[in-house]
Amino acid sequence: MYYFIEPMVEDDVPYVQAIEQQSFTTSWSANTYRREVRNTQSCRYVVAKASGSPPTSLSKNGGVPNAQRTGIFSQLVSTLLLGMPAQLTPQATNPIVGYGGLWVTLDEAHVTTIAVDPIHRGRGIGELMLNTLIDHAYELSAQMLTLEVRVSNHTAQQLYLKYGFQVVGSRRRYYTDNGEDALIMSTDSIHTPDYKNQLRDHRRHLFARLQAQSKP
Prior knowledge:
By secondary structure, this protein is an alpha+beta fold. 35% of the residues lie in helices and 25% in strands. It has a single domain, classed as Gcn5-related N-acetyltransferase (GNAT) (Aminopeptidase, 3-Layer(aba) Sandwich), CATH 3.40.630. The protein contains seven helices and eight strands, in the order E-H-H-E-H-H-E-E-E-H-E-H-E-E-H. A hairpin with a 2-residue loop joins strand 4 and strand 5. Keywords: Acyltransferase, Cytoplasm, Ribonucleoprotein, Ribosomal protein, Transferase.
């Protein structure tokens, strides 16, 4: 199965919401997603899609259909054979298996959400989307990244720590479903040579992991 990243469009919203409902206990309205997708001045939302064969448009755009080839797109192959059966959904040819987004205020890029269909978790798709969002942060001239994460979500925390996020505070009873606290995590400047070198190393390892998974 091939996986690739595309910009989220309004027609994707119902499928994004289906994954959201399997991933979180609270969800955004369809109108919220549509508003975020339309706000191209300060927002970037992406989806990960699956395909049984390389889509035709991939060969014409270096592996990235309908997407700007920034950062990760020039360093990683964004269509990856992961050796998994296709997810059967009523969706069209290339089902959405994950999504993520961020918005930028002044010089801060805030990662608003990342989620992967439970069937496709543990394959590096979430990490691939985080890298894509980091590239969009560069594109929007952000200096740093920030996000909130549940105190109980240790898997996500480990991924964020890997990419230079550190715990800088907390929000008491931030999540309305159960009153759980959120950790506030932020990076230092993403423009330092150290950060860029670490990012390059992480991407090299991610690519190697995904390549290994592609082997029968």
